[in-house]
């Protein structure tokens, strides 16, 4: 179903999928010109839904902003803007009675990975797990030591520059983390079967860290 979240003084569109029995909620944060209609992220979301994980695919840009970004490519690298909106959307999700009880994970792609990590650093009591797909976590480098949620980086083995940037980011983390390198995969995991590997890796990470039902705050209570 389509819903709207208010953040940063604008209305942001999102697509919510609620399996019959939910063991967690994963908020998808897109980047680099993508949107909630991204077929790659929808494949991952479908894999999560089949295992009882609710998903919320979120657009951090309004339609006019997205159209502007398609021309200039600037807003996708406005990490402060994207991070601020991601944090506020996390708050809005927590205010929805049907979702507030679910442990929360963040799935960040491309520059959305930086926004997800910044949001997790600012809201450690809200975020229980993070997955970054082909992401730019290096754009969140100053905040990485404050991230508490277990973090999985998924990178294609052929995506050499982004792999190096992910390793740099991982070295700055204090939280539990892992880099999963997908053999034979490029930046967008377009090769046959590679996106299925991404979906399985993300599914297993979130099930492990969310299905127990405890957020960081609950675990420390």
What features would you describe in this structure?
This protein has a single domain, classed as Alpha/Beta hydrolase fold, catalytic domain (Rossmann fold), CATH 3.40.50.1820. The chain has 7 helices and 8 strands. It has an 8-stranded mixed sheet, sandwiched between helices. The longest helix has 17 residues.
Count the beta strands.
Answer: 8
- Low-confidence blocks of residues: 213-221
SSE succession:
EEEHEHHEHEEHEHH
How many DSSP H or I helices?
A: 7
Shape: globular
The strands making up the biggest β-sheet line up spatially as: 1-2-4-3-5-6-7-8
**What is Rg?**
16 Å
Distance between the termini: 34 Å
Summed over residues and divided by their number, the pLDDT gives a mean of 88
Structural class: alpha/beta
Number of structural domains? 1
CATH-level-4 superfamily name: Alpha/Beta hydrolase fold, catalytic domain
Top-tier CATH class = Alpha Beta
Per-chain topology:
Layout: E1 2-7, E2 10-17, E3 24-29, H1 39-49, E4 53-58, H2 63-72, H3 79-94, E5 104-109, H4 111-122, E6 127-133, E7 151-156, H5 160-172, E8 177-182, H6 194-210, H7 216-220
Parallel strand pairs: 3-4, 3-5, 5-6, 6-7, 7-8
Antiparallel strand pairs: 1-2, 2-4
Helix pairs in contact: 1-6, 3-4
Briefly, what is this?
With 221 residues, the protein is of the alpha/beta class.
Task: For this entry, give a set of tags.
221 residues; alpha/beta; Rossmann fold; 7 helices; globular
């Amino acid at each position: 179903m389509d819903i709207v979240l208010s953040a940063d003084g604008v209305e942001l569109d999102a697509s919510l999928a609620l399996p019959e029995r939910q063991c967690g909620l994963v908020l998808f944060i897109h980047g680099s010109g993508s949107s909630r209609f991204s077929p790659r992220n929808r494949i991952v979301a479908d894999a999560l839904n089949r295992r009882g994980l609710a998903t919320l695919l979120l657009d951090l840009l309004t339609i006019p902003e997205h159209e502007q970004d398609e021309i200039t490519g600037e807003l996708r690298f406005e990490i402060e803007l994207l991070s601020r909106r991601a944090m506020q959307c996390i708050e809005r999700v927590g205010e929805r009675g049907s979702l507030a009880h679910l442990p929360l994970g963040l799935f960040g792609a491309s520059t959305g990975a930086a926004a997800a990590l910044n949001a997790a650093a600012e809201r450690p009591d809200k975020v229980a797990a993070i997955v970054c797909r082909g992401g730019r976590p290096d754009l969140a480098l100053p905040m990485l030591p404050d991230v508490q949620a277990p973090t999985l980086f998924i990178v294609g083995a052929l995506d050499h520059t982004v792999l190096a940037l992910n390793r740099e980011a991982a070295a700055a983390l204090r939280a539990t983390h892992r880099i999963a390198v997908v053999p034979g995969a490029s930046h967008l995991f377009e090769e046959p079967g590679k996106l299925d590997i991404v979906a399985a890796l993300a599914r297993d990470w979130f099930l492990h860290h969310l299905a127990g039902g405890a957020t960081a705050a609950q675990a420390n209570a």
